[in-house]
Amino acid sequence: MKRCMNCMSEYNEQNSRCPRCGFSEEEMNGAQKLPEDILKPETVLQGRFVIGRPLSCSDYSFVYLAWDGVLRRCVAIREYFPGRFARRAGNEVVCRSGREKNLFEAGKLDFESEALKLHYNQDIKQIVNVYRVIKENNTIYTVMEYLTGISLRDLMNMGFEQMGISEKNVLDEIFNTITAIHARGIGHYNLSPDNIYIDETGIRLLDFGKAKYKMYQATGGRVIRYEEDYIAPEVLSGKEVRMNADLYSLGILEYELYTGKAIPYSNRPQRRKKPLKTGNAEIEREINILADTDSKSRPVSLAEYLKTAGGRKQGRD
Distance between CA atoms of 168 and 46, rounded to whole angstroms? Predict the structure, then answer.
């Protein structure tokens, strides 16, 4: 028997394609244009985790589908790999030059620290489960729950009505989850529709960005890129950030969910001079408080805002 690197099911070696997903080894090896520095399929970590196809590739990390040979389940594994100053030597991750070694090592510690913080807060069911953190190949791997739901981005593109899901309920869940993580001293710092998943249990947050931001700040933005539409201005300018950077992202998401439109000057918020309009005065007030381009004018945390505002009306029209 052999294992499909696309869906991780087992099938007879005589078959040229996986009977479950129809994938072939030739497609994995040649048809996809993938970064040359990704771990090769069938690489094994800790004698237990079999690396499969890449799920996402960025300038900061790679995420792979993997098979846990002990618990016999699919997992997702994120590998610390800042590609601008790291390269692959066999399976090992090494710096391209000695001058950047300190940055690489500091980033590795931050990556590990953030992963461990999420691991120790797994009782918050709306964040992706981090099962363990692995040190191997001169880098850090985060073994996570493999989510099989749909991203908020895809849901927005497909239409909430088509999927039978209420955008109001999704937004309420996002607010509740951000309130919960802020209460633990955890900020997301990378909130966008791509990093919010919806499955049968509700919403799930992934791809937390505190470690990523610290590298962005340390390198003056040379190494890391952001999806600028949803990121607070102080993050993009490399200034010190607080958890209320998440409030800015929430305000942008709320505007987009209620209007179905991208926010004006989303990637150049300093040019946004007028209050955002939605046609609903109560919602407009909330959005303009949360998405204030001046971090000092925003509430310090979501809990503070909710307390000051007297709470949100759940599932508002």
Answer: 43
**Closest C-alpha to 44, from 137, 161, 150:** 137
Q: Which of 243, 153, 247 is nearest to 195 (CA)?
A: 153
Look up residue 310 and give its two tokens.
Answer: 């007297």
CATH number assigned to the domain covering 150-309: 1.10.510.10
CATH topology of domain 34-145: Phosphorylase Kinase; domain 1 (3.30.200)
Closest-CA residue to 110 (of 215, 33, 31): 215
Tens-digit pLDDT string for the chain (317 aa):
899 999 999 999 888 899 999 988 777 665 456 788 999 999 999 999 999 999 999 999 999 999 999 999 999 999 999 998 899 999 999 999 888 899 999 999 999 999 999 999 999 999 999 999 999 999 999 999 999 999 999 999 998 888 888 888 999 999 999 999 999 999 999 999 999 999 988 999 999 999 999 998 888 877 777 777 888 988 888 888 999 999 999 999 998 888 887 766 554 555 455 566 666 778 888 999 999 989 999 999 888 888 887 656 554 44
Spatial neighbors of 243 by CB under 8 A, at least 6 apart, are: 182, 187, 300, 301
- Any idea where the domains of the chain sit in the sequence? 34-145, 150-309
Q: Residue 311, by phi and psi: left (phi above 0), alpha (psi -120 to 50) or beta?
A: left
